[in-house]
Structure formats: C-alpha cells, structure tokens
Design brief:
Elements: E1 6-17, H1 30-47, E2 55-59, H2 65-68, H3 74-84, E3 94-97, E4 120-130, H4 131-148, H5 153-163, E5 167-174, H6 175-188, H7 192-203, E6 209-212, E7 218-222, E8 225-228, H8 231-235, H9 242-253
Parallel strand pairs: 2-3
Antiparallel strand pairs: 1-4, 1-5, 2-4, 6-7, 7-8
Length: about 250
C-alpha cells in the first residue's frame, strides 16, 4: 500500500436473518474477527481487485442500523482511528477488532443488546485507501456492491456457524447504500420528513433543515437538535367542525 494520507471508505456486511432467528452472541473474539476479515477481504478483492491496494478494517460485532447511523458515525470513526494506529505492512493490510474477555476495544464498537432483535444485523467495515486510489475505488465499490455485493458462500457459512443462525442473505453495502435503504424504510412507514432531518444531522450537521410532517406539522433541525411544532399550535391553523378538528388533532399527535 502506498505511503501518504489515507481516505476511509465506510461499508457494512449486512446479515438478513431468517424469520425467528437470533444470534447467540453479538461479538467475535479477536481470532474470530481476524478469520472473518480474511474471508471478507477475499470477497471484496474478487468484486473489486483494487481493494488489494487498500487496508481493510473490520469490527467483529453485530449492530442495528440505529446504532451505526448516528451523527459523526461514531462506530466507523472509531474503527478508522484504531486502524490507523496499526503499523503498515502488518497482517497483509487486513485489520480486525474483536472482543477480549467479552469486551470490545472501545465503547462505540460495543453492540447494545437493546437493539439485538432486529431482522438485519450489520458488521461495520472500512477500506483505508491512498488518496490517489480513493476516488476511483469508491466509485467502483458503489457500482459493484449494489449490483453484485452478495458475500461468498464460505463467508456466509462461516457466519452461520459462528453466530448460530440461519441467514436469508449476506451482502456488502456501502454506507451510502445503507443510508438509501434506511430512507426507503422510513418512506414506507410515512416518516420521510423525519428521515430528512436525521439525514441532515448525519451528513450536514452545520446546516439548518426545515420540513413538514405528512399532516403539516412543522419540523426543524439546527445545532444538533430537532424542534417540532406544538400540536396545539398546529391545531389553531386547521379549519372544519369540532369532530374534524378532533380527528386531525389525534392524527397529528399519533
């Protein structure tokens, strides 16, 4: 790998669990994480050969999207910071972090059991690439992962054995893919305006963002906080008889 500054290209390994399945644990040991990272490197290098010129970094832990998609993307930021401390040339540019005596290296890489029952589990990973390669590699990954990002059979089998689960699908997603997938999920439950604010908090936290809920409630993001108009204030702008206004008020509170 070339000397010089490295740019981080964040991604995930997404595990879609079969109905009723739950992993028997949420993290891997250091040795297990290293085994998985070697399989992931093989998969990604098959998809995009330029990956060989980057450093692959993986956290051996299962997260929910709500844990990863937070302002500042703390899991990826921590993963990248830890990886940059490892001298170049070690481990053939594949670095993995797992638990020691049940604890991950730092809190942002520690999964929260409160979110452990979701149908999709995510292992964060990142590619640290030289500046001269990063742009081209990022473009190739965005194209190849969305089109052909299924994990190899060896990787899928290893995950099922290690976590004691049956999986419907295992695939690689860029962080942009994960953001887009989450956006669709919010739209599906009629919460697109809320996602607009959450996306602003993650991608452009320095900007103010305003929007309206599906029923017209004013929402605003600024300075790290989200403000929602009072339903009672919103009600004063509504017309109609008492029954219609009561129905509208119940809907906006819901």
């Amino acid at each position: 790998m070339e000397a010089g500054p490295l740019e981080a290209l964040p991604a995930v390994l997404a595990l879609e669990l079969s109905p009723g399945e739950h992993p028997r644990r949420l993290s891997l040991s250091r040795d297990e994480a290293a085994e998985l990272a070697a399989l992931v490197a093989e998969d990604l290098q098959t998809l995009v050969p330029q990956v060989k010129q980057a450093r692959l970094v993986l956290a051996g832990a299962l997260f929910d999207a709500v844990e990863l998609l937070r302002p500042g993307f703390p899991a990826w930021a921590t993963l990248d910071e830890l990886a940059r401390r490892v001298p170049r040339g070690q481990l053939e540019n594949v670095v993995a972090f797992g638990h020691h005596e049940g604890r991950m290296p730092t809190q942002p890489l520690e999964p929260d059991p409160a979110y452990a029952d979701g149908p999709m589990r995510l292992l964060p990973l990142s590619l640290l690439a030289p500046e001269a390669l990063a742009g081209e590699l990022s473009e190739r990954l965005e194209v190849e992962l969305v089109g052909r990002g299924e994990a190899g059979s060896r990787t899928a089998d290893w995950l099922m054995r290690c976590f004691g689960i049956q999986l419907e699908h295992v695939r690689y997603l860029s962080r942009n893919d994960l953001l887009a997938l989450t956006c669709v999920q919010y739209e599906h439950v009629n919460l697109a305006p809320l996602w607009q604010l959450l996306e602003a908090a993650m991608l452009t936290p320095y900007r103010t963002e305003t929007t309206l809920s599906a029923r017209g409630l004013a929402l605003r993001y600024a300075d790290g906080a989200i403000w929602a108009q009072s339903p009672a204030q919103w009600l004063t702008t509504q017309t109609g008889d008492s029954a219609e206004r009561s129905h509208a008020f119940a809907g906006i509170v819901f």
